[in-house]
């Protein structure tokens, strides 16, 4: 193992250590049993094509250069740590950073969906954070919808010749916020308001989420830029193989 690879391994270990001291709360993504069965099935079915493509893309990425496995693992650890630091929010859910913007920027949204669902399964089983019945809904909002927005924004800003670090910040920031727009829609669809229906319920959920999620999204954008700078220092060859 080269010196740079050792440094990258140490960086990954630091994230895992941070996870061990993460505060535990009873808050959830969308908690176990909170959604009606039909919505659990619906969101799960929607996720399947993205996960299949993501699995195929991971095989392709690792087949091109096995060294990218270290970066992939670090990206997964980043998602794991950030999405485990949670602040209780509206009934049945919570506010937290997602960390998925980094994966979307480096590997694309479909690969990130695989990282995201692995994280969500571990959190549901080990931390009571989220749930197995609501896995599809949480996967779609955090591991699919958010990363797609981050990836699209990053590519568009690249084409517009925006500074790379600014592009990374914007992509991670707005990808985080879009995750919670989708979560608000999922909750509103399952529990529409008696007055105003789904639309009124979305506005209510978005308004409550905004107070905690806006500052968290800013922090996530900054942390994502910091991690990319570290990777450019210690994993330049691996990033080159990803055409980053």
Automatic annotation (TrEMBL):
What's the chief localization of this chain?
membrane
Q: Which GO terms describe its cellular component?
A: ATP-binding cassette (ABC) transporter complex
TM region(s), chain numbering: 36-56, 105-128, 135-154, 166-191, 203-231
Q: How does it sit in the membrane?
A: Multi-pass membrane protein
Q: Which UniProt keywords apply?
A: Cell membrane, Cobalamin biosynthesis, Cobalt, Cobalt transport, Ion transport, Membrane, Signal, Transmembrane, Transmembrane helix, Transport
Protein origin, superkingdom: Bacteria
- Offer one Pfam family short name for this entry: CbiM
Q: Where in the cell is it found?
A: Cell inner membrane; Cell membrane
Example of a GO biological process term: cobalamin biosynthetic process
Q: Which GO terms describe its molecular function?
A: cobalt ion transmembrane transporter activity
* Pathway listed: Cofactor biosynthesis; adenosylcobalamin biosynthesis
Note the subunit structure.
Forms an energy-coupling factor (ECF) transporter complex composed of an ATP-binding protein (A component, CbiO), a transmembrane protein (T component, CbiQ) and 2 possible substrate-capture proteins (S components, CbiM and CbiN) of unknown stoichimetry.
State the similarity comment. Belongs to the CbiM family.
Q: Which PANTHER family match?
A: COBALT TRANSPORT PROTEIN CBIM (PTHR43627:SF1), PTHR43627
Q: What does this protein do?
A: Part of the energy-coupling factor (ECF) transporter complex CbiMNOQ involved in cobalt import.
The entry's protein name is Cobalt transport protein CbiM
| Originating organism | Anaerobutyricum hallii
Give the gene symbol. cbiM
């Amino acid at each position: 193992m080269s010196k740079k690879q050792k440094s990258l391994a140490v960086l990954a270990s630091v994230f895992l250590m941070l996870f061990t001291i993460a505060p535990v709360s009873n808050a959830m993504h969308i908690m176990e049993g909170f959604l009606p069965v039909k919505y659990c099935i619906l969101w799960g079915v929607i996720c399947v094509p993205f996960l299949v493509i993501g699995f195929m893309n991971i095989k392709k990425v690792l087949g091109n250069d096995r060294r990218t496995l270290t970066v992939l693992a670090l990206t997964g650890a980043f998602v794991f740590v950030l999405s485990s630091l949670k602040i209780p929010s509206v009934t049945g859910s919570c506010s937290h950073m997602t960390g998925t913007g980094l994966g979307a920027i480096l590997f694309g949204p479909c690969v990130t969906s695989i990282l995201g669902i692995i994280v969500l399964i571990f959190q549901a089983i080990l931390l009571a954070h989220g749930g197995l019945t609501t896995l599809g809904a949480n996967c779609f909002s955090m591991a699919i919808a958010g990363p797609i927005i981050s990836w699209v924004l990053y590519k568009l800003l690249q084409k517009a010749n925006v500074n790379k670090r600014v592009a990374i910040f914007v992509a991670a920031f707005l990808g985080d916020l879009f995750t919670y727009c989708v979560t608000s829609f999922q909750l509103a669809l399952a529990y529409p308001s008696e007055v105003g229906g789904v639309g009124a319920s979305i506005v209510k959920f978005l308004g409550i989420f905004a107070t905690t999620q806006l500052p968290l999204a800013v922090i996530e954008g900054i942390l994502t830029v910091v991690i990319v700078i570290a990777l450019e220092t210690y994993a330049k060859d691996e990033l080159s193989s990803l055409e980053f």
